[in-house]
Specification:
about 325 residues; alpha/beta; Rossmann fold; N-(1-d-carboxylethyl)-l-norvaline Dehydrogenase, domain 2; two-stranded antiparallel sheet; 15 helices
Amino acid sequence: MEEKRIFGDNCRVGIIGSGSWATAIAKMLLNNVSLLSWYIRDPKNIKTFNLTGRNPNYLTSVHFDISKIFFSDDVNDIVRRSDVIIFAIPSAFLKQALEKLTEPMSDKYIISAVKGLIPDENMIVGSWINKNLGVPINHIGVISGPCHAEEVALERLSYLTLACQDIKLAREYAQLISCHFIKTTVTDDIYGTEYSAVLKNIMAIASGIFHGLGYGDNFQAVLISNAIQEIKRFVDTVHPIARDIKSSAYLGDLLVTCYSQFSRNRTFGTMLGKGYSVKSAQMEMLMIAEGYYAVKSIHEINEKYQVSMPITDCVYNIIYEKVSPVIECMLLTDLLR
């Protein structure tokens, strides 16, 4: 007997965010939904998008069928028109994006594609949505990698994990984004996948710093081996359930973020290793490196848990304590095995 679906064929889906990851997710969704509602903050960008069929700022090679998209610069329009809402916006700006939100969210289904923590509250996004928007925790899903938006734009085969405490709902969320170039798997480990997605950005900054300092592939292998152990120690302490840290949602996401040419966190770290100041690196990148915010939040959270996190401590000391990358990285090399 076929399992009854939560969402019908006419499921209304909305996206909050207009960056590269939001654009990639829209590309996936339009394989499966007949109309997509999309919040873009700047009306000038909406006008350009409607004229050209392309996001004027991100993944500009991707062409969209505009007849299948409703754009609005009013977040309430998108919420009203959507049953499922996907947040794909840097965590540091999520609260700002929702400042004018007046529509109730408690009856909505939410998917977080945000790979970061709410900085001033040190909360993972799922917990923040549950607490501040009144969305039931079992209605909240999380998209985790390994997957870079740039390869989605090229329709290169990619894999995503959908996490939700309601595993049936996780499977339905997965169906929304599955297509000929996206394969999906599901898990109920919403907390572990969120924290892992936060931590891998920190590890990628470390990878970039060492790369910028001239360390080679031999050392990178040791660094990443220690990084996945550090992630495991932290997530097992914060949310102790059975999980396979070697699966793609954890180890796979870490690897692609630390090694890929598209990784903005690795790029940010490489610039720091080459001698850029934090501010100058941020200005030159013109994109958000989530690990910059994440490392401060994780450092503060870990004051409670006291997990051994030498790589995270190294990145924190370089970025926030302004310790020389040469000195800090040399100290870390003596701690790795």
